[in-house]
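user: can you give me the structure for this one chain? tokens are fine.
assistant: on it. calling the predictor now.
[tool input]
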Amino acid sequence: MANLVDTLTDATKTIGVGAAYGAPVEIDGVTIVPVALVWAGFGGGNATGNGNASSPTDAAKPLFGGDAGGEGFGGGGVSIPVGAYVTTDGVASFQPNIIALLAVSVPVVVTAGWAFARVIRALKK
């Protein structure tokens, strides 16, 4: 299990500001710094016993005389390019990636509309 912790620690070192802001790129005197919306999640666990334990001592009993224990681990992440900071002649400006922003905002707008409709419906009662 300690090796798993070391592996996870090494994997998460790259998540953060370095993942959200890319390395600056210079093209024809214009400096571009890509920007992304980044998030990640990890989970894991282990268990022994048959899953029908009524007490802590029952949980440690093997199922059918064998070892019914198990371990699991998973993780994942998402990176959505939202735009770039563009520096021209010493002036920096943010240039959004309209397609990515629309893709990210559609679920937010739908959820907000659904919640607003539920609040209005509840207030009418």
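assistant: here you go. The helical segments are 2-12, 17-20, 56-59, 98-124. The mean pLDDT is 79.
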